[in-house]
Amino acid sequence: MQRTESPLIALAILLAALAGFVDALAFTSLGGFFASFMSGNSTRLGVGLGSGSTRDAAMAASLVMSFVAGVILSTIIARARAHRHQPAVMATVTLLLALAAMVAMLMPGPIVLLLLAAAMGAENGVFHRDGEVTIGLTYMTGSLVKLGQKLAGALMGDTDRFGWLRYLALWLGFVSGVVIGAESQFRWGWNALWLAPLFAAVLTLLLASMTRPRPNLTPVR
To answer: Going along the chain, which residue ranges are E strands?
Structure first.
């Protein structure tokens, strides 16, 4: 995240808010499972296996696999389009979210959650460099660890005294999205899910604009 330009950091915060929004809708609508928080689903998997609740265990395992499938898809796209892969990845996220919203109108249930998990897995491919995810957008544990490390460094006199602020902003973006998602689900139910692909489409257009190659204005001599 330290090597990411400021406009893209701002966009990362908006993407984290999108993940929080989707996670809140999934959690409040579909039995306490998560669309983006795979540590939580892994816990549900272990508890389900330990308590004999095979249905919960199967749902949690399916979500983890769906999330990983989304990561695989976005990684393939990022490698195929090494230059300007971000808009292509976000277009894929938008499509998956739109499919989830359509399915939710017809038969709300596990399929919706699987599509949301795939979308959240794919979203992590937006910030992808040299085969690695550079900013985790849908899980905040790593950001909180970095926040603590940067704060410790600032207290110990490191020159980068305010590096922790970007990680705090990322976490606050996610939490803000959760608040908006919970409120939207309370007011509009499944219809609130349509806000996710609409917002994702806007972010896709922003990424396309921000990553568009600039014309070479150097005069020819």
So the answer is: 128-129, 132-133
